[in-house]
Write a structure and sequence with these properties.
- The chain has 352 residues and is mainly β.
- The chain has one domain: Neuraminidase (6 Propeller).
- The chain has 2 helices and 26 strands.
- The strands form 6 sheets. The protein has a 5-stranded antiparallel β-sheet, covered by helices on one side. Strands 5-6-7-8-26 form a 5-stranded mixed β-sheet, with no helix packed on it. It has a 4-stranded antiparallel β-sheet with strand order 4-3-2-25, covered by helices on one side.
- The chain starts with 11 loop residues before the first strand and ends in an 18-residue tail after the last strand.
């Protein structure tokens, strides 16, 4: 583990499939991951010797992650951070070709921000799960409500339907996922097995139902892909027929989905042993395959549905929330607040 800010109580072991590192080098990408379980932002890249480079920083309850032209956004316990890469193209620092600085922090309060995306106008949209709505950043308030499902009667800090996922299409918020269509405080927990839905944002209509704790809807190659986390199936939704078409089974509780060409990167977690995760089809589906749940990233070839590569995390990390691919990035790192190095980093904008 490189540049760990705090010593881990339990060691973290990261292993990969035989060709995962070669695939990353061939595709010229690295990966960013979040885990709110221990509050870490991970960067997985390659060093000069083509060995795995793992870099981590601490952010309390970090969850949603999305990229920008020169950086990324990260949601944490009560803030959303915008990171900017400090390095010019072709430059590197201590072997890293991206140095992400937490440039701006927006204090949202603990709204349980889940998925995030930057729309065609450059505006960040995030899923405000506590208030069951889509929201934007505000310069003067905690957030700006942008949209709510039609069945939510009013904005309230009650996590009524567990709205969690956001998909953009043509630069606009197009689809969201929720665990149920409940309109009472914490009502979604009673409908975890089959109450999951996909909502068309523009029409404000439910277009897919009967899902099990769906997460991470993404529009890619003309299809709406998503994770049916409660069953363990990755697939796509036909919003015209209302059908979910499974593509493959993934051995873990899925959260976090990103694409790179013909490949999907799926985040896997080990289910917690509590009421929220018990009784889901994922349990029986794992047993039917004589499989144990895993934590890590699975790379799926969309052309075949095969899991062609994987990265596994064992030890202190058992849950992930989000995963994004960083194209044309070989070895990224970020600055944090638990060491004093950030105070010595100063960059100058070009003069007028």
């Amino acid at each position: 583990m490189e540049n760990s800010e705090t010593p881990a109580q339990n060691p973290l072991e990261i292993t990969t499939s035989r060709q995962m590192i070669a695939w990353m080098a061939e595709q010229q990408l690295s990966i960013a991951l979040t885990t709110y379980q221990i509050g870490k932002l991970f960067f997985i890249g390659l060093n000069a010797g083509n060995d795995l480079s793992v870099f981590e920083r601490s952010f309390n309850r970090c969850m949603g992650l999305c990229t920008t032209n020169n950086g990324l956004y990260l949601s944490s316990l009560y803030q959303i951070w915008r990171f900017e890469n400090l390095l010019e193209p072709g430059r590197n620092q201590d072997g890293f070709d991206r140095v992400y600085l937490p440039q701006v922090g927006y204090t949202t309060g603990d709204v349980d921000a889940h998925d995030m995306a930057v729309d065609g106008a450059g505006r960040l949209i995030f899923v405000n799960t506590l208030f069951s709505c889509l929201a934007g950043l505000s310069e003067t308030h905690s957030f700006k409500p942008l949209w709510k499902p039609g069945f939510i009667s009013r904005l309230a800090a009650e996590d009524r339907c567990h709205l969690n996922g956001l998909a953009l299409k043509d630069g606009r918020a197009a689809y969201v996922t929720a665990v149920s269509r409940s309109d009472v405080a914490d009502g979604w927990r009673d409908h975890r097995a089959h109450g999951g839905i996909v909502i068309d944002v523009e029409q404000n209509e439910i277009v897919v139902s009967g899902l099990s704790m769906p997460h991470s809807p993404r529009w890619h190659q003309g299809r709406l892909w998503l994770l049916d986390s409660g069953s363990g199936h990755f697939g796509y939704a036909d919003v015209n027929t209302g059908r979910f078409e499974p593509v493959c089974f993934c051995p873990g509780y899925m959260r976090g989905l990103n694409f790179h060409g013909n490949f999907a990167l799926v985040g896997l977690s080990k289910p917690r042993h509590n009421k929220t995760f018990c009784g889901l089809a994922l349990e029986s589906n794992l047993k039917a395959r004589n499989a144990e749940p895993r934590c890590g990233v699975q790379v799926i070839d969309l052309r075949t549905g095969d899991a062609v590569h994987w990265l596994r995390m064992e030890g202190v990390v058992e849950e992930l929330y989000d995963v994004v691919a960083l194209p044309q990035v070989r070895r990224p790192m970020a600055l944090g607040f638990k060491t004093d190095e950030i105070r010595r980093v100063i960059s100058l904008e070009a003069e007028i």
